[in-house]
Structure formats: structure tokens, C-alpha cells
Design brief:
2 strands; single chain; mainly alpha; 9 helices; Endonuclease III, domain 1; 2% strand; Adenine_glyco
Length: 187
């Protein structure tokens, strides 16, 4: 973490948020399970701020068995009720149930395409898109690519994968580099 560095305008002063921006956001991520975790957390963010989710990320990891799809896909009604009682996570029934549904689709994608990450990265031809935004106000909420990814994942049965959620996911996973031109992480 670089002190007194110029960062993207969305970063607040919390060291947790600064570390997330500096060390994770926009760095290409290819690991299937880590991409599943990130997609899950982005879905949990719907209607909330990423900062809220980030502060709860460790609780989410603990509650959802470190986002292991092999375990999550076997969750039943008792586990759903347990999760809905957990104050450390977002206790929204539809969001919780979507994680189980999405774990099942995760395996469908792997069976069909060989890897979850490979499938997701195929939407950007396997290479990060480098944008050149002057300020945060220039950054779109969604793009034709996130629209396409959203449509494809919904068709496969995934939930909480709207275009805006997926564009945030693409930014976070490094599929697009949306660090503003003045941000020291740009390089």
C-alpha cells in the first residue's frame, strides 16, 4: 500500500478499502473458485455498496465454506436457514439461495467449457480490456460485453448476474482495467 498515492475516486480512507483497491481490484483473476467467490460477492452487493460487502467478506467466507462449490451445491434447507440467521452476512433469502443455484451452474459450465474462468474470460477473448477513463464519472455501469455475459449466464440458470453486477465483476476480476488515468495502480 503506497502512502499519499492518487487512487481511483471511489476509494475511501479505510485501510481495508485501500488495500482492496491497491492489491486486488483490476488485477487479472483466473482461478475458477476465486472467480466464483467474487461473482457471489458481487451478487450479494446488489442494492448495497461494495464497501459493505468487503467489510463482511471474511464472514461470508466462513459462512459459505470458503466458497467451495463442491460443498455449497449440497446445501439444503437447514443450511439456508442457518445462513439466514448469520448476522455476519447479507441475510436475503433470494441471494442466499442464488449461491446454491449458481454453484450448480458453475459445474454445468465446467462440464461444458472445461473451466469456469476460461468461460468467463472468453467474453473478453482472454485478454483484459484497457480503458482510458479520465474520471470516475466516465466509467460506465455496464457495457455490451457485460450485457452479453449477463444474458448468457442467465440463460444457463445463474441468478443475480445482471449486466451492472457483471460489469463490476469484470472490473474487480481484471477483465477490464478501469483504474482512472490518474490512479497510481493504472500501470
Amino acid at each position: 500500500m503506497k502512502e499519499n498515492a492518487i487512487r481511483c475516486a471511489w476509494v475511501n480512507a479505510d485501510p481495508l478499502y485501500i488495500a482492496y483497491h491497491d492489491e486486488e481490484w483490476g488485477k487479472p483473476l483466473y482461478d475458477d473458485q476465486k472467480l466464483f467467490e467474487l461473482l457471489t460477492l458481487e451478487g450479494m452487493q446488489a442494492g448495497l455498496s461494495w464497501y459493505t460487502i468487503l467489510k463482511k467478506r471474511e464472514s461470508f467466507r466462513e459462512a459459505f465454506d470458503h466458497f467451495d462449490p463442491h460443498i455449497i451445491v449440497k446445501y439444503g434447507p437447514d443450511k439456508v436457514e442457518e445462513l439466514l440467521q448469520n448476522p455476519g452476512i447479507i441475510r436475503n433469502r433470494l441471494k442466499v439461495q442464488s449461491v446454491i443455484t449458481n454453484a450448480s451452474v458453475y459445474f454445468d459450465i465446467i462440464r461444458e467449457h472445461g473451466s469456469f474462468g476460461g468461460y468467463l474470460w472468453s467474453f473478453v477473448d482472454g485478454t483484459p480490456i484497457i480503458n482510458h477513463w479520465e474520471s470516475i464519472s466516465d466509467v460506465p455501469a455496464s457495457t455490451p460485453i457485460s450485457d452479453s455475459m449477463s444474458k448468457a449466464l442467465k440463460k444457463k440458470g445463474m441468478k443475480f448476474v445482471g449486466s451492472t453486477i457483471l460489469y463490476a465483476f469484470m472490473q474487480a476480476s481484471g477483465m477490464v482495467n478501469d483504474h482512472t488515468l490518474n490512479c497510481y495502480c493504472r500501470a
